[in-house]
C-alpha cells in the first residue's frame, strides 16, 4: 500500500476534530502545567539538541541482521498528515518532558495505515486487572477508551508497578522548578522596590523623626540634573555588588550543569563550562560517542520498538549511528583504507557510507579476433 492510498484511507477513518470522538458532557477541562520547563533556556536548548540529534539519523530495515535496500512507507512517513521529522520530534519531546509517548494506530480493514502521537498530558492510563505483573491496560483520550492493541506506549524509564514511565524532567521536577525560581528572582531583583539599593549613614544618634525627614528628602522627586543635599552629617552609601553577583552567574552556571547532567547531554554541546575539565578533541569525541550510546539510545530504542510493530514479521527497524560516531576526515579515510586493504569492505560499500553513488567500473575492451 503506497503513501497516497494510506492518506485517502486515513482521511476516511479519522476526522481530526476536538469533539468528534468525545461524548457530550465529559470533555475534560484544559489542564495547564504549574510551570513550563521549556521556558528555561537550558531546558529548551537540551530538548532541541535531543530532537535534532535523533530526527537527523537515517533509519534502515533489517532482516536477519542484514540491511535491506528498501524501507517501508510506514517507516518513511508514519503519520500520513505529517513529516517523519515532526513525528519523531513529538515522540522525543514527549519522552523528555513527560516520560511517555503515546502513539495511536489507525487501522483500515485490519491493516495499520497511519500513526498519530497523542499529547501525553491528555492520556489517562489505567489497569483493569488485579495483578500488576500482568496488567490489562486501558488508555483514555478525550473521552474515548483504547486498548493496548490501539495505543503503543513508549516509556523513557520503565519502573515496575508504575503505569506511566518517568522522564528526566518529570523525575527531577524540583530541580527544574528551583532553576526557574532562581531565574524569576533575578528578573524581579531589578524591578522590586523593596530591594535596598543603598542607605544613608551617620555617626550621630538619629531620632525617628530625623530619619523620616531624611528619607523623604532623599526620595523627593526632581529632575535628572538635580543635586541631592544631605544634612545631619548624613552620607549616602550605595551597595557595592559585583557585576557577577548582580547577574547571578554562579547560580546560572550551576543550574546549566545540573540540567545538562539530568538530560545526559555533554557540557560541550550545551556550551556549559565544567571546572577542572581539560577539553581536547579526543575526549570531546569520546563524550559524543557516550552521548549516542547512553542518552540517544534510550529514545531511539523505544522508537525502534514502535517501528518493529508496524513492519511485517521478520523485519526490524534500526537507526544508523555511523553519522553520529563519525571521526574526522583523516581518521575516517585511514579506517576505510585499512578495511579496503583487509578485504572486508569494497569501494562501493565505502562510498555508500559517505552518501556517494556507486562507482561504475569502466567497460573493458572486447578482444579482437585475429583469425583470418
Provide a concise account of the structure shown.
With 372 residues, this protein is an alpha+beta fold. It is 40% helix and 15% strand. The protein has a three-stranded antiparallel beta sheet with strand order 2-1-11. It has a three-stranded antiparallel beta sheet with strand order 4-3-8. It has a three-stranded antiparallel beta sheet with strand order 5-6-7, with no helix packed on it.
Account of the 3D structure:
The chain is of the alpha+beta class. The chain folds into three domains: 254 residues, no CATH class; 35 residues; 30 residues, no CATH class. Helices cover 40% and strands 15% of the residues. The chain has twelve helices and eleven strands. The strands form four sheets. Strands 2-1-11 form a three-stranded antiparallel beta sheet. It has a three-stranded antiparallel beta sheet with strand order 4-3-8. A hairpin with a 2-residue loop joins strand 6 and strand 7. It is elongated, with a radius of gyration of 31 Å. The two termini are 60 Å apart. About 2% of the residues have low confidence.
Amino acid at each position: 500500500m503506497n503513501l497516497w492510498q494510506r492518506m485517502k484511507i486515513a482521511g476516511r477513518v479519522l476526522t481530526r476534530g476536538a469533539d468528534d470522538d468525545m461524548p457530550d458532557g465529559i470533555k475534560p477541562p484544559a489542564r495547564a502545567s504549574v510551570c513550563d520547563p521549556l521556558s528555561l533556556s537550558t531546558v529548551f536548548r537540551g530538548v532541541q539538541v535531543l530532537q535534532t540529534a535523533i530526527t537527523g539519523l537515517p533509519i534502515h530495515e533489517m532482516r536477519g541482521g542484514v540491511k535491506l535496500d528498501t524501507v517501508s512507507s510506514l517507516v518513511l512517513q508514519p503519520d500520513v498528515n505529517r513529516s517523519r521529522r515532526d513525528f519523531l520530534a513529538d515522540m522525543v519531546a514527549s519522552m523528555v518532558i513527560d516520560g511517555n509517548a503515546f502513539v495511536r494506530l489507525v487501522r483500515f480493514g485490519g491493516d495499520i495505515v497511519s500513526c498519530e502521537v497523542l499529547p501525553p498530558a491528555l492520556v489517562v492510563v489505567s489497569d483493569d486487572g488485579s495483578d500488576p505483573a500482568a496488567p490489562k491496560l486501558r488508555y483514555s483520550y478525550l473521552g474515548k477508551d483504547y486498548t493496548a492493541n490501539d495505543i503503543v506506549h513508549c516509556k523513557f524509564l520503565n519502573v515496575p508497578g508504575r503505569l506511566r514511565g518517568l522522564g528526566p524532567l518529570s523525575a527531577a521536577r524540583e530541580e527544574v522548578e528551583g532553576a526557574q525560581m532562581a531565574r524569576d528572582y533575578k528578573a524581579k531583583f531589578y524591578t522590586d522596590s523593596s530591594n535596598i539599593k543603598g542607605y544613608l549613614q551617620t555617626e550621630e544618634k538619629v531620632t525617628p523623626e530625623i530619619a523620616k525627614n531624611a528619607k523623604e528628602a532623599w526620595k523627593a522627586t526632581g529632575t535628572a540634573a538635580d543635586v541631592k543635599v544631605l544634612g545631619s552629617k548624613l552620607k549616602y552609601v550605595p551597595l557595592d555588588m559585583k557585576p557577577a553577583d548582580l547577574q547571578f552567574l554562579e547560580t546560572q552556571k550551576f543550574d546549566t550543569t545540573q540540567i545538562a547532567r539530568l538530560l545526559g547531554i555533554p557540557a560541550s554541546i550545551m556550551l556549559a563550562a565544567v571546572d577542572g575539565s581539560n577539553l581536547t578533541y579526543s575526549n570531546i569525541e569520546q563524550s559524543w560517542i557516550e552521548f549516542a550510546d547512553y542518552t540517544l539510545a534510550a529514545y531511539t530504542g523505544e522508537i525502534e520498538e514502535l517501528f518493529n510493530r508496524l513492519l511485517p514479521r521478520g523485519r526490524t527497524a534500526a537507526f544508523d549511528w555511523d553519522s553520529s560516531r563519525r571521526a574526522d576526515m583523516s581518521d575516517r579515510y585511514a579506517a576505510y583504507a585499512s578495511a579496503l586493504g583487509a578485504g572486508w569492505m569494497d569501494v562501493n560499500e565505502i562510498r555508500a557510507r559517505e552518501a556517494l553513488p556507486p562507482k561504475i567500473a569502466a567497460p573493458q575492451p572486447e578482444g579482437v579476433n585475429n583469425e583470418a
